[in-house]
Design a protein that fits this description.
This protein is 32% helix and 16% strand. The protein contains six helices and seven strands. It has a single domain, classed as TIM Barrel. α5 packs across α6. It is α/β, with parallel strands linked by helices. The two termini are 33 Å apart. The strands form two sheets. A five-stranded parallel β-sheet has the order 1-2-3-4-7. Strands 5-6 form a two-stranded antiparallel ribbon.
Length: 171
């Protein structure tokens, strides 16, 4: 049997990225989206994804950050509650600066759990740090950066991230 893991990163504050940011990346968007920037935030699409997933009978994990530029993650409180009540999973999209600090990562997890009023067991991060401390991960005999063991110590069971590059692996 094959499984599919469907997830969404909530990378921007609820108000979305600035107009300038979007226009610098306009090749990512269709013409209608660009023309409607003053009307609709292209980065706020949680209700859209919920409707699509309901239509197809699937549920995904939404990874929320607790640190946003010029925004507060508590703005998403109603969305987080709607997702949990609808059967979706909420995970922490941790700040890269937290991945090598048990205290920072635990603090982010606790903040999200307070808003969610629900345990957070899933974590996504895009970068891992070794700081010269390598732990052996037995699966496939690969060496995994220190930040993996820190996440386990915080209580994350499910971890999702871009596959680490060879620059993060000890050979």
């Amino acid at each position: 049997m094959q499984y599919i893991f469907l997830s969404h990163d909530v990378d921007w504050r609820k108000q979305g990225a600035s107009r300038e940011h979007i226009l610098k990346r306009k090749q990512r968007f269709d013409k209608v989206t660009i023309n409607n920037l003053g009307v609709r935030n292209p980065y706020y699409n949680i209700p859209d994804y919920m409707a699509i997933e309901d239509r197809y009978g699937v549920k995904s994990t939404f990874f929320f950050r607790t640190i946003y530029e010029d925004g507060d993650f508590s703005d998403y409180e109603d969305d987080i509650q709607a997702l949990i009540n609808g059967g979706w999973e909420i995970g922490l999209h941790s700040d890269p600066k937290s991945t090598n600090s048990l205290e920072k990562l635990a603090g982010e997890k606790k903040q999200l759990e307070l808003i969610a009023n629900h345990p957070i067991i899933a974590n996504r991060v895009h970068y891992h740090y070794t700081d010269g401390c390598i732990h052996i991960y037995l699966h496939e005999n690969q060496r995994i950066p220190n930040s993996y063991s820190i996440r386990e110590n915080v209580g994350f069971v499910q971890k999702s991230e871009k596959r680490y590059s060879n620059s993060y692996l000890a050979r």
